[in-house]
């Protein structure tokens, strides 16, 4: 199955819009063109020479990575350096590169949600919520025979997504009136004559970042020369926002601390874990932050977590955990984020459904840190 790269990007950014990313981050399309046709995707945590070689060998058209390959402006593309070699190979083999990083970390149903579900947490909430999204209700008026098409445009462009449901719309019927003026080219009616038409009012909730593109697509597909629509600001974002860093939830059944360690090692397929602080006897409430989240020790403690799971734990992070009478488990940066490949696959499959291209998890994606 082949799709346009723009469709793959839309499926990801419906869940993890770029405006969720931290200011210092660099996300989005880094190599390639959005009109490119994609048949095979290689998914990785990091972009390395070996990962690109695997993409070439497996004839992938697109690499999707979690960590940005290009962070700052490049001063050279010389193949004497690894970055130059990688970019040269990507362009030479017509392989696009797309990155979703902190926007995926912070997104509701993004990486941290995926990790929380993987560990079996229930009643999951965001550990450090970001500012709430702005939501709007978009109302469109159309002749009844066009309603199904309008609803399809709503759904395909991310409108009407509420929790685990999409295509959530409401319609009501009425009579619309209008009079085409001189110079108009009406779909229904005649110039200078008042026309009454059976119309539907179709409405759905839309995040602000998707609103402009949705309206453009609706205008392209609406039968009328001038589409009538209303944009109504909502307060819902204050109540339904779950974007932000980290997650906190509870285990269905409490575990003894050693049993919990074994559980995390098994789920994340890790031979060992590091830890610091004061180990509680029983674990019920669990906080987590994929990658580097030791700065959330205080917040996790304040929200009454029994433990924080993260990576990149440093000496003074351990000291802070001890001083807070709190337990932190270090499952590694790679260990807490390698599940991003399955997370990407799930998001893209949900967005593209039966139009999904082949997706491969990179075998060359490895932990850079080696225990000897």
TrEMBL record:
GO terms for molecular function: metal ion binding. A divalent metal cation binds at residues 66-67, 105, 333, 337. It comes from the Bacteria. SUPFAM superfamilies: NIF3 (NGG1p interacting factor 3)-like. Pfam families: DUF34_NIF3. One of its GO terms (cellular component) is cytoplasm. Keywords: Metal-binding. The keyword Lyase does not apply. The keyword Metal-binding applies. Belongs to the GTP cyclohydrolase I type 2/NIF3 family. NCBIfam families: YbgI_SA1388. This is GTP cyclohydrolase 1 type 2 homolog. It comes from Acetobacterium paludosum.
